[in-house]
Amino acid sequence: MLHLMTMEETTKLKQELERTKTELGILYEISNAMRTTLKLDEILYIILTGVTAHIGLGFNRALLFLINEKEGLIEGKMGIGPDSGEEANRIWGQIEGEKMDLDDLISAYKFSSNDNNGFESGFNKQVQQIKVSLADKNENLLSLVALEGMPLHLTKETIANYRNSSIVQSLKSEELVLIPLKAKDKINGIIVADNFITREPISKDDLHMLAMLANQAGLAIENSQLYEKTVMLAHMDSLTQLWNHGYFQYLLQTELEKSRAEKAPLSLIMLDIDHFKIYNDTLGHQAGDKILTELALLLKDQSRKMDFVCRYGGEEFAMVLPQADKKEAFLIAERLRMDIEKHAFSHEDIFPTKKLTVSLGLASFPEDGLVPAELVAASDKALYQAKNKGRNNTCC
Question: Is 91 exposed, middle or buried (0-12, 13-18, 19+ CB in 10 A)?
Fold first, then answer.
């Protein structure tokens, strides 16, 4: 028998269709935005903006964690959300007042990143400090979601069972949702979201939307990571795993432009192994390659996080030191020289001094050169002076 729909049923169906249309529209917008870039930080920002924006899923806060399989860790990468109710009202008011859509929010982030201000909210910094063990299934919610690969919705009733979890303690939420990000059946991240300001309950529809977004996000993150891996391999010296000569030239140019714009110092160190030909001629190139690899690792470990360590060619290395004036760069160069002299390298008794040593030449912007070629020439000249002074020296 044919069932005729009542007015109430028709209205309900229309509302459901409208909601589905809106949800698909939101997912389409976020999906399109994710296709505009392959940069990982921009992908993460787009995902979290999609989760928190009023034109997105509308959660108050969202955090994104990535799985670091190599080190067995789950690492906080980015968080979007206000630190307090006052800040929430200010941010939401500004977005509403300026009628900012998803594209506007993404453009604002890209501009702030290019402007070297980055995305430095207090909440984001807090998220970036979170690191938990991947194997810690019994102790940690993040590990549980990563290993089980299933979403977890903690309500007011169930969240108390996990009060010892670091994520619950950090967020101080009454209700929380954790969704795994998947790419080809492999978990590569986790989104955590809550409504700690509005305290609006997280509905089944919210969970459904978040799960659909997570499916796209996992693939976007994997594509970005593969792209970054490919770019790194293209610019890396295959023997030492340092930046190669071509990328050194690009880095020096880029960092010089930044220093010029910020009126900040920059220094360049050229470093060369003393009497390396004797070692190579005696033991062969394979033994020489082993020394180069070991030295590269030492330079990488002993340099500052912001420095760029490159293989210039043969047994010569180059280091670009942003924000370092000549005095600071000289101290860095001398510390490296002494660390290398103290280090026990294989068969180093073959060297005339019975130790592997290096000579270093140093030049600084702006006093020694305004363009890359001038800085390279100046540091090369200083390196030549260090060799003439008897090697195992740093010259400016």
Answer: middle
pLDDT, tens digit, 9 for 90 and up, residues 306-347: 899 999 989 999 999 999 999 999 999 999 999 999 999 988
Quote the CA–CA distance of 304 and 331 in Å, as a whole number: 12
Element (H, E) at 137: none
Selection from 44, 183, 34, 49 nearest residue 104 by Cα: 49
Phi, psi of 351 (to 5 degrees): -65, 150
Looking at domain 10-234, which of 3.40.50.300, 3.90.230.10, 3.30.450.40, 2.60.120.380 is its CATH number?
A: 3.30.450.40
Q: DSSP 3-state assignment of 66?
A: strand
How far apart are alpha carbons 295 and 275 in whole angstroms? 15
Among residues 94, 77, 81, 70, which one has the least CA distance to residue 42? 77
Give CA–CA dist 165/136, Å, rounded: 11
- What dihedral do alpha carbons 96, 101, 103, 108 form, nearest 10°? 0
Alpha-carbon distance of 330 to 327, in angstroms, equals 5
Q: Which residues of 279-291 are buried (b: 16+ CB within 10 A; e: fewer)?
A: bbeeeeeeebeeb
Closest CA to 345 of 299, 282, 290, 392: 290
127-159 residue pLDDT tens: 999 898 888 766 688 999 998 999 999 998 999
| SS3 state of residue 288 | helix
- Cα–Cα distance, 380 to 396 (Å, whole number): 10
Strands (E), 215-282: 266-273
**What residues have CB less than 8 Å from 207, skipping those under 6 apart?**
151, 153, 177, 179
Q: Domain 245-395 classified CATH 3.90.650.10?
A: no
